[in-house]
UniProtKB/TrEMBL annotation:
Subcellular location field: Cytoplasm
InterPro entries assigned: STI1_HS-bd (IPR006636), UBA (IPR015940), UBA-like_sf (IPR009060), UBA1_UBAC1 (IPR041926), UBA2_UBAC1 (IPR041927), UBAC1 (IPR052476), Ubiquitin-like_domsf (IPR029071), UBL_UBAC1 (IPR057650)
Highest taxon in the source lineage: Eukaryota
Residue ranges constituting the UBA domain according to the UniProt record: 168-214, 274-314
Keyword Cytoplasm part of the UniProt annotation: yes
Protein name in UniProt: Ubiquitin-associated domain-containing protein 1
Biased composition (Low complexity): 228-250
A Pfam family of this chain: UBL_UBAC1
Assigned keywords, A-Z: Cytoplasm, Repeat, Ubl conjugation pathway
Keyword Iron-sulfur: no
GO cellular component: cytoplasm; ubiquitin ligase complex
Pathway the protein takes part in: Protein modification; protein ubiquitination
Disordered: region residues: 217-257
Length: 391
């Protein structure tokens, strides 16, 4: 056995001796004083010189495979890291606190003697929403222009019949028959179940919750915004049948114009805003009136948190502002109308459908931006807005 100080000696022990007992015998050779202090033993270790392995105290010489004439090193363990003193901990915490950013009270105290300046925070808020607000106004005005242009097209009625067929395929307007049957089998009236499913994206569970929550609501059976009573479609079908029968030459133009007007109305009804029923309930539970809750959700595209901020804030823009178009004499609108790509796009019924959809569902704008027919039009509008907004 060797020590780090250079002492050497020979130890002879039976194979069943534990490493700990061997270590105690070794310590008697090199450590002065008594070995009664347990720290003396635990603060040293034996290492096999050839394998450089630290021997385990609880194992025997045989288990550690120590052979005759093997060399062991008796090494004092490194002292454990001392715990920091309380004064040092306090000093470190104080240093961290000094490096922290000041809180609101500290800022107010430091700036108490500075001259006050009026900052209109609403202006900043509105500037952030400028593009969204202006784009909506642009779409409102472009829809009017597109409708007038398309009305001049002799094939407009046929074009919009095809467009309406596209809208009729929209899953949102179709009712899941299986879901409807589940609700009617529970005892809910069919018309009420249809309304609940449409409001809750065909989710049976959410529709059922809505029906239970609105069971005593006097307006529960009122049709959704833009939807005609049940008998209205039959009348519409009859008028369509009469139109298909073939109008007289004198009345043909007037009939086509009326039919096109009805088609435009139908498109708008399909794109009517539908508030998220869960958001409506959550906001009404805060004490807001149902009408103002619906207005808030409409202004903020069914985003509950944004709607809550709108209700608690200055309520700008107002719901009425959403239906206002851009000034048709403004340089921005003139530049948009003079763009050849936009002009060509306004003669395409699909562009009108895209404008209507984005007006009521701004989150769908990405879909129309990626569409090969409507994407170029939206790109030109965006570029013109950004260009004129910088000048």
């Amino acid at each position: 056995v060797c020590t780090m100080e250079g002492a050497e000696w020979l130890e002879e022990v039976p194979e069943d001796t534990t490493v700990e007992k061997l270590k105690e015998r070794c310590l008697k050779h090199c450590v002065p004083g008594s070995l009664e202090d347990p720290k003396t033993v635990t603060h040293h270790k034996l290492i096999h010189a050839t394998s450089e392995k630290v021997l385990t105290d609880t194992k025997t010489v045989l288990e550690e495979n120590i052979q005759d004439s093997d060399v062991l090193l008796l090494v004092k363990k490194r002292a454990p890291t001392l715990l920091p003193k309380m004064a040092d901990v306090v000093a470190e915490e104080k240093r961290k606190q000094e490096q922290k950013a000041p809180d609101k009270d500290a800022i107010l105290k430091a700036t108490a003697n500075l001259p006050a300046r009026s900052v209109d925070r609403s202006v900043t808020h509105h500037n952030m929403r400028d593009f969204q607000t202006e784009l909506r106004k642009i779409l409102v005005s472009l829809i009017e222009v597109a409708q007038k242009l398309l009305a001049l097209n002799p094939d407009a009625v046929e074009l919009f019949k095809k467009a309406n067929a596209m809208l009729d395929e929209d899953e949102e307007d179709r009712v899941d028959e299986v879901a409807l049957r589940q609700l009617t089998e529970m005892g809910f009236p069919e018309s009420r179940a249809v309304k609940a499913l449409r409001l809750n994206h065909m989710s049976v569970t959410q529709a059922m919750e809505w029906l239970i929550e609105h069971a005593d609501d006097p307006s529960v059976d009122a049709p959704l915004p833009g939807q005609a009573p049940a008998e209205a479609p039959a009348e519409g079908a009859a008028s369509s049948a009469e139109a298909a029968a073939g109008p007289s030459s004198e009345e043909g133009g007037e009939e086509a114009k009326d039919e096109l007007t009805e088609i435009f109305k139908k498109i708008r009804r399909k794109r009517e805003f539908r508030p998220d029923p869960r958001a409506v309930i959550a906001l009404m539970e805060m004490g807001f009136d149902e009408k103002e809750v619906v207005d808030a959700l409409r202004v903020n595209n069914n985003q509950q948190n944004a709607a809550c901020e709108w209700l608690l804030g200055d309520r700008k823009p107002s719901p009425e502002d959403l239906d206002k178009g851009i000034d048709t004499n403004s340089p921005l609108f003139q530049a948009i109308l003079e763009n050849p790509v936009v002009q060509l796009g306004l003669t395409n019924p699909k562009t009108l459908l895209a404008f209507e959809d984005m007006l009521e569902n701004p989150l769908n704008s990405t879909q129309w931006m990626n569409d090969p027919e409507t994407g170029p039009v939206m790109l030109q509008i965006s570029r013109i807005f950004q260009t004129l907004n910088r000048t």
